[in-house]
Amino acid sequence: MDADSDVALDILITNVVCVFRTRCHLNLRKIALEGANVIYKRDVGKVLMKLRKPRITATIWSSGKIICTGATSEEEAKFGARRLARSLQKLGFQVIFTDFKVVNVLAVCNMPFEIRLPEFTKNNRPHASYEPELHPAVCYRIKSLRATLQIFSTGSITVTVLKRKYTLPTPLDSEQVSFSFDSFYGFSHLPWRLLKPTARVMPKS
């Protein structure tokens, strides 16, 4: 392979979790009776509300705290959260959309090679930990990015970024991540340094 050529590595953003507050008390029973696409879980004191566009699921507490999951970008998460706040306003609540923030981003990617997990873990301690009796993946933590990678022997990697202004594909940038797969895969003509991550969102089904 030409040393100047690049190999694209797709990073698929599958879930963006956000939270916001309404600054008012929410009557969960009223939401359950008058709202659309809702599930009232009285035993745990919350209501689940689903939106179709964007396709997100909101967990609503009477305190006014709301967590939204299912978005594939920060813009989509914020748009969905505002739509949800508007839906609650239409039910008669004095909602003020405040304290919006992204708290978790989940992404996945697949390497074009398999990974020997025991050798990989041995060469990347203390950042990497591997307990095959409990979980089939290596857990690799990047403290500076507040990111956790679940690395599987098949080459599949799940990336979770916590509470930061995420800029994927930074968590998998070869300049940020110091570990090397060079001796642990079958395709020796695809060195890790040539893999250039490109983030994209999961298409809606």
Question: What is this structure, in a nutshell?
Answer:
The chain is mainly β and 205 residues long. It contains three helices and eleven strands; from the N terminus they run βαββββαβαβββββ. Strands 1, 2, 3, 4, 5, 6, 7, 8, 9, 10 and 11 form an eleven-stranded mixed β-sheet that branches.
What does this structure look like?
Strands 1, 2, 3, 4, 5, 6, 7, 8, 9, 10 and 11 form an 11-stranded mixed beta sheet that branches. The chain has 205 residues and is mainly beta. The chain contains 3 helices and 11 strands; from the N terminus they run βαββββαβαβββββ. It folds into 2 domains: 11-105, TATA-Binding Protein (2-Layer Sandwich); 111-163, TATA-Binding Protein (2-Layer Sandwich), CATH 3.30.310. 15% of the residues lie in helices and 37% in strands. The two termini are 36 Å apart.
Oligomeric state, counting identical vs distinct chains: single chain
Radius of gyration: 21 Å
State the CATH superfamily name of the largest domain: TATA-Binding Protein
Query: What fraction of the residues are assigned to beta strands by DSSP?
Result: 35-45%
